[in-house]
Specification:
Layout: H1 5-17, E1 61-66, H2 72-87, E2 91-96, H3 101-113, E3 118-121, H4 130-138, E4 142-146, E5 158-162, H5 164-178, E6 188-192, H6 200-219, E7 222-223, H7 231-234, H8 241-255, E8 264-266, H9 270-282, E9 293-297, H10 301-309, E10 314-317, H11 320-336, E11 357-360, E12 363-365, H12 370-375
Parallel strand pairs: 1-2, 1-3, 3-4, 4-5, 5-11, 6-7, 6-8, 8-9, 9-10
Antiparallel strand pairs: 10-12
Helix pairs in contact: 1-2, 2-11, 5-6, 8-9
């Protein structure tokens, strides 16, 4: 990925504006680049109208379709992506679908008709965009999937994401480590949550969790009193915090009201941890006494504050600056006809093709490293987190 001094200065100013910094902390897993299979060929970027244009000075337009403003993460990253692309001289149109599939399809159609040279899409429904992406392909418009793999279409050129399998694995390992599973004589009681079952990120997170937990479920060291362990049982429709709250309340009243101890809840999003907190408080759980271990993902301000208060145990920090920077690299490669930087050409099969991917890495945040990673790293200020 080519970089220049001007871009670095622009990014530094922008990250300061958003309370962002320069580096992610210790990786939660091995570098994905180390897993890149030998001998794999990188697919050449599709030649877009912008890349083949005779008018080198013509402004190129990037259409960005994100799922919802309801999640702090998407608003923040939408702003970062827009600023980054504009700093490179591109015209940018960012649209939010508010988690409605038909709205997203209509917005993508509008971006195509508005003359987009490249589309960046975080899908509401990973398998619902086949027809509209065929329209984009027919017009020579490149498509980059951002954070969520788009399935059942050959018309997705690249993918940039965090490794959700590793996020699931590291979340499960963190819980088992904190509960000292190997040295316990009684089983750990745990409940599992993941996102919308239509979202590939939900399935990959779930796969990672079960990669670690299955051994302990089989040998009896971990129990799930609700009996809900299948993907379709643990998924939360629409990634809805309200749906997560309803499920947590039902689990507590149905399987723990007799005094059975709930030791931990594993989940894929900070928004779900707010639901757990509400359900625990309503059920009479006390921090420092019988409060379960819980984990989330995204390092939202409220979640980090809850970590500092002991109401949430950890979150997986997905530094949007890193993912957005790699996205910028892919967009530039597509629009300028350059070779993209990718580090995985084997794992991300969307049912039609293996999509060339750049995989970023997440970091687990606990009370012990909030200061060193999030504050010293510039992602948040101490004031934002109530540390001063």
């Amino acid at each position: 990925m080519k970089k220049n001094f001007a871009l670095v200065m622009v990014l530094l100013c922008m990250f300061t504006f958003f309370g962002c910094g320069k580096a992610e902390g210790d990786p939660a897993g091995d570098k994905a680049a180390a897993n890149e299979p030998a001998g794999q060929e990188t697919a050449a970027p599709k030649e877009s109208p912008a890349a083949s244009s005779d008018s080198a000075g013509e402004e190129k337009m990037v259409g960005v379709s994100l799922p919802s403003r309801a999640f702090e993460r998407w608003v923040k990253e939408g702003d970062i992506i827009s600023e980054m692309l504009q700093a490179e001289g591109y015209s940018v149109d960012v649209q939010y679908a508010e988690d409605d599939v038909q709205t997203q399809i209509s917005q993508i159609e509008n971006l195509i008709n508005s003359g987009a040279d490249c589309l960046v899409i975080t899908a509401v429904d990973n398998s619902a965009l086949t027809n509209v992406l065929q329209t984009a392909a027919d017009m020579g418009i490149a498509v980059i999937a951002y954070d969520r793999l788009i399935n059942q279409t050959e018309n997705v050129d690249y993918f940039v994401t965090f490794d959700n399998v590793k996020v699931g694995e590291s979340s499960a390992r963190k819980v088992l480590e904190m509960l000292d599973v190997e040295n316990r004589t009684e089983p750990i009681n745990m409940e599992i949550f993941t996102g919308d079952s239509a979202d590939a990120n939900s399935a990959t997170f779930y796969t990672g969790v079960m990669n670690v937990l299955q051994e302990y479920l089989d040998n009896g060291k971990v129990a799930v009193p609700s009996g809900q362990t299948a993907l379709e049982q643990v998924g939360i429709d629409g990634w809805s915090q309200e749906n997560a709250l309803a499920r947590m309340e039902n689990i507590l009243s149905g399987y723990y009201s007799d005094g059975t101890k709930l030791d931990a809840v594993i989940g894929p999003a900070d928004a779900f941890t707010y639901a757990y907190v509400s359900a625990f408080e309503s059920a009479g759980y006390k921090v420092g006494e019988n409060w379960p271990i819980t984990g989330g993902q995204d390092a939202e301000v409220m979640c980090v504050k809850n970590i500092l208060a002991g109401k949430t145990t950890f979150t997986n920090y997905r530094d949007g600056r890193i993912e957005s920077t790699q996205l910028l690299s892919l967009v530039k490669a597509v629009l300028e006809g350059e070779e993209p930087e990718i580090n995985d050409t084997a794992r991300f099969d969307n049912g039609v093709k293996v999509v060339p991917t750049y995989v970023c890495e997440a970091t687990i945040i606990t009370k012990e490293n909030v200061q060193s990673i999030l504050v010293d790293g510039g992602y948040y200020t101490a004031e934002e987190l109530g540390l001063k």
